[in-house]
Design goal:
Structural class: mainly alpha
Number of helices: 7
Helix content: over 70%
Number of strands: 0
Strand content: under 5%
Radius of gyration: 20 Å
Mean pLDDT: 78
Order of helices and strands: HHHHHHH
Distance between the termini: 20 Å
Shape: globular
């Protein structure tokens, strides 16, 4: 009986699509980003209405109703890959130029966001593969470097990166909710794999 119960739970777990799991990860990351931004503005004594450039740090094709599922997922994956590179760079510069060596709530939250972003990137990559989407080139890190000639400019640049991660996380949630074909195809793919595994036993 215990074995049958385990098999039912495993089957239920496997029935969850990658798209559904990815959306859940994005929802969690978006919440964690809001906490990180709150901690950062408090740490750096920024006001909540700090003025920053309106331009995006991430460069991808603009959204369009003409984009199909593959193109939309490619756009997301490319943007998230750039976000991770930006976040890695921001963390490195913070630790070198602004770091105090302290590991407090802010540093813990920052690591949580970084790890969750990496997980989201992996899952979006799986969706891209599921629809036979094109590969994503590694971003040009030199192009992503910010203008941080002063300490204040560096702090604003880090803030903009956190806002960028938050923006693209929200975009991921919105995009996945409007791509039912991804969920359908992934469900069919998962069912097919399970059937093949059962046939081999």
């Amino acid at each position: 009986m215990a074995d049958r119960k385990t098999r039912r739970m495993t089957g239920s777990d496997l029935s969850k699509t990658t798209a559904t799991r990815t959306a859940a990860i994005a929802e969690q990351l978006h919440h964690e980003c809001s906490i990180l931004l709150e901690l950062y503005t408090k740490k750096e004594t920024f006001s909540s209405d700090i003025t920053v450039s309106d331009g995006r740090l991430v460069s991808v094709p603009p959204p369009s109703s003409q984009l199909d599922t593959k193109d939309n997922l490619w756009r997301l994956h490319s943007a998230l890959l750039q976000c991770r590179s930006l976040l890695d760079s921001a963390i490195a510069k913070e630790e070198v130029e602004l770091g105090t060596g302290r590991k407090g709530e802010y540093e813990t939250q920052r690591k949580m966001v970084k790890d969750r972003l990496s997980l989201l990137l992996i899952n979006v990559g799986e969706l891209l593969k599921a629809v036979d989407g094109p590969g994503v080139l590694m971003p040009n890190l030199d192009r992503l470097e910010g203008d941080d000639s002063t300490v204040f400019e560096l702090k604003v640049w880090v803030y903009r990166i956190f806002k960028e991660v938050e923006h693209w996380t929200k975009t991921t949630i919105t995009t996945l909710n409007t791509l039912p074909s991804v969920i359908t195809k992934e469900r069919v793919r998962t069912t097919r794999i399970r059937s093949m595994r059962s046939a081999r036993k």
